[in-house]
Structure formats: C-alpha cells, structure tokens
C-alpha cells in the first residue's frame, strides 16, 4: 500500500505550526486533530471531534470574523471530500487570511484504511482551483511545506489551498480535549472576548 | 412565484422588520441558500455595510460557518428553506457541543396550500427535526407577529445561548403556485 517518498504527517503538521505566532489552527475530524495536538496543545487550536465535513467552513467563519488573523485549517482527504462544496463557498468569499491544508493519505485511516476517492479519481487541488482558489498547490516535499507555512502568515494574499500527499502509516493517537465549549471559549478568551 | 398570499395577513415590509432586528442584535455573517421567500431579506443583507451575505452550496455549511464566526467573535444567522433543514442534521450537533449562539430563519414549504407533494414530507417534519436536535422552534404566521417573534428569537439565541429556529409560515410568505 504505502508508496515511496510520501511525507510523514506529523512532520508536515509540526512544520506548519513550528513558528505559528498568532495563527488559529483548526483540525479536521480524525487524525489531523491528533496531529495538531502532537505539535503542541495551544489556546488557538480548534479540535474537531464531530460534524465531519465542517472544518473548512469553521475556518471560513473565523477568517471572516478576524480578517487580520491567519487562520489555518488542517484536515484529511475524507473530511475535505465530505465538505467539497465549501471550497466553492470559500472561492466565492475569497478570505485573504484563510489557508487550507489537506493531509492526503488516500484512505480513511480512522475506520480501517478504506480507500478514498483521492486515490484514483478526485484531484482536490484541481477542485480547489476550479472553485476559484487561485493559489492551490500539490505538495510532495518538506521544502514546499515550509514555504507554505511561511505563506500562511501573509493575510493579504489568500485564500490558499494545499494538498499534501502523506504516507498511510498509522501513528500514535495523541488526543486533545473533547470538551467543545472549553475549546471554543479558550480560543475566544485568547482573542480577547469575555464570557457572555 | 408567490401568488395566493393572504392579502390581509401579508404586509409588504415584514422583511424589513427582520432586517432591523438582525441589525439591532449586531448580526454580521448571514449565510444563506437562495430561496424565494427570503429573497427580499437577502437583497437587504447584500446591500448592507455591516452584514456579509454568504451564499452556501448546502445548508449544513452554514451551521459550521456560524460556529467559526462565534469563535472569532461575530454573530450570524442562517437563512434557509424547510427542505434544507434536513441537510443540516449532523452538523446541528455542533451547537450543543460548542455552545454557540444559533439562530436560523426558515421559510416553510409543504403546508398551507402547497401544490408540490415533494415539499410535504420535509415541510411536515421540520419542527420535529429541530426539536429532536435541541433547537427551540418559534413560528410567525402573519406579518403582524414577525417583529415580536424575531425579537424573542434573537434575544434567546444571542443572550441566553438557546438555539432557536423561526419558522416563517407559508401562510405568511404565500404559497407558491405553478399550476393553473
């Protein structure tokens, strides 16, 4: 199954968040949320445990509310496929501070490794570009990941989309908080909003 | 279009009453799926300097969008039609989990003189679907009660974090007629 020269998901996410500064990071339902946790728990991490398909739209709502903050969605190919229409919605709104990274292992790793559409048919970079996200990249090297990580901080030039081919190895689960209210209120507090 | 509205029940400006309430509650993001019953309100939103109208490809996008908006400090309202409520069911689970203010305005089909049988199943279960999902339901059946219903709904959604749907009845909007 596993192909040569594919990137390691934890290395990719660590590189994306290594110098995160004020970035708000949103994980997708599944392993990408664990990857964000593995890179270090943070007050500006949004961990998704349900609502599959919603990660990019949560990112859009946040990016529109906070146009000067870099907002980075890191999700998986299965989660992105479920919310593929949201790429059209984002392409229409063109939030310049929103970046989306898909960790694409061409499989549903959480549920037994069933093959996903990206393995043979669906080209998410092509979809994103065709939906109006002009800066849509296919990434296959760590140098490209690092260049993308820098670009995330430019809140004037997005939206941007990257599909990163990763290997399908199962890695240790590192689980963040499951308390959604805590997760949201922690981000809000860090952004300076008081409890109601 | 919307022929056969009950003349006595339908004032032309109930959309303006809704818009004014949303403005007063500082609503900023207005995701919507295009809908004839909401068309005048959508025009007001798209012409507004304080609100952003956000067309969706499917209604559940709007639920996730409002979660992100609240996390970033903004309020929003989701505009949809009764048939779109069914598209939202799993995403509605985010509301109690994340505890963000949720207000949706739903134009009803499948009731009060409906001519299209395909609208009836979802229109008939809209209220039940919301209630099973933990969303409180209020209804406006005529133009005169729109301001009070909107005020109550916005207050409990935004001030008390009580997820609320306002059903704008087909009697208010006027039943769609394609047939002779």
Automatic annotation (TrEMBL), chain A:
Pfam families in alphabetical order: TPP_enzyme_C (PF02775)
According to the record, the segments passing through the membrane are 46-65
Q: Which domain of life is it from?
A: Bacteria
> Gene3D superfamilies per the record?
3.40.50.970
Which of UniProt's keywords are assigned here?
Answer: Decarboxylase, Lyase, Membrane, Transmembrane, Transmembrane helix
SUPFAM superfamilies in the record: Thiamin diphosphate-binding fold (THDP-binding)
The molecular function GO annotations come to:
carboxy-lyase activity; thiamine pyrophosphate binding
Q: Where is the Thiamine pyrophosphate enzyme TPP-binding domain?
A: 45-159
GO BP: any one term: small molecule metabolic process
| InterPro entries according to UniProt | Sulfopyruvate_deCO2ase_bsu (IPR022494), THDP-binding (IPR029061), TPP_dependent_decarboxylase (IPR051818), TPP_enzyme_TPP-bd (IPR011766)
Which PANTHER family does the UniProt record give?
SULFOPYRUVATE DECARBOXYLASE (PTHR42818:SF1), SULFOPYRUVATE DECARBOXYLASE SUBUNIT ALPHA (PTHR42818)
**What protein is this chain from?**
Aldehyde dehydrogenase
From TrEMBL, chain B:
* Database matches in InterPro entries: THDP-binding, TPP_dependent_decarboxylase
User: Which keywords does this chain's UniProt record carry?
Assistant: Decarboxylase, Lyase, Pyruvate
GO MF terms held by the record: carboxy-lyase activity
Q: Check the record and name the PANTHER family matching this protein.
A: SULFOPYRUVATE DECARBOXYLASE (PTHR42818:SF1), SULFOPYRUVATE DECARBOXYLASE SUBUNIT ALPHA (PTHR42818)
Q: State the protein's name.
A: Phosphonopyruvate decarboxylase
Protein's organism: Bradyrhizobium commune
């Amino acid at each position: 199954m596993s192909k040569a020269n594919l990137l390691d998901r934890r290395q990719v996410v660590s590189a994306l968040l290594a110098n995160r500064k004020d970035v708000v990071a949103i994980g997708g339902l599944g392993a990408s949320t664990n990857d964000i946790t593995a890179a270090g728990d943070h007050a500006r991490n949004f961990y998704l445990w349900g609502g599959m398909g919603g990660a990019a739209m949560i990112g859009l709502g946040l990016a529109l509310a906070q146009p000067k903050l870099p907002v980075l969605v890191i999700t998986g190919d299965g989660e992105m496929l479920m919310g593929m229409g949201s790429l059209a919605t984002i392409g229409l709104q063109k939030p310049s501070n929103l970046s989306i990274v898909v960790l694409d292992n061409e499989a549903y790793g959480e549920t037994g490794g069933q093959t996903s559409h990206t393995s043979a048919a669906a080209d998410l970079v092509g979809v994103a570009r065709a939906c109006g996200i002009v800066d849509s990249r296919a990434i296959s090297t760590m140098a490209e990941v690092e260049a993308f990580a820098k670009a995330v901080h430019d809140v004037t030039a997005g939206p941007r989309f990257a599909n990163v081919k990763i290997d399908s190895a199962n890695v240790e689960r590192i689980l963040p908080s499951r308390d959604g209210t805590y997760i949201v209120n922690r981000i809000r507090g860090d952004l300076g909003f008081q409890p109601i | 279009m919307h022929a056969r509205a009950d003349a006595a029940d339908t004032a032309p400006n109930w959309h303006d009453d809704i818009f004014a309430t949303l403005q007063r509650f500082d609503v900023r993001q207005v995701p919507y799926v295009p809908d004839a019953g909401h068309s005048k309100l959508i025009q007001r939103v798209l012409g507004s300097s304080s609100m952003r109208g956000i067309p969706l490809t499917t209604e559940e996008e709007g639920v996730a969008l409002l979660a992100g908006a609240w996390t970033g400090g903004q309020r929003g309202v989701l505009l949809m039609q009764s048939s779109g409520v069914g598209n939202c069911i799993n995403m509605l689970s985010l509301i109690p989990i994340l505890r963000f203010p949720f207000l949706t305005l739903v134009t009803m089909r499948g009731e009060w003189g409906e001519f299209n049988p395909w609208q009836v199943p979802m229109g008939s279960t809209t209220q039940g679907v919301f209630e099973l999902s933990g969303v409180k339901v209020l209804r406006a059946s005529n133009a005169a009660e729109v301001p009070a219903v909107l005020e109550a709904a916005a207050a409990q959604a935004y001030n008390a974090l009580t997820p609320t749907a306002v059903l704008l009845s087909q009697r208010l909007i006027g039943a769609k007629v394609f047939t002779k």
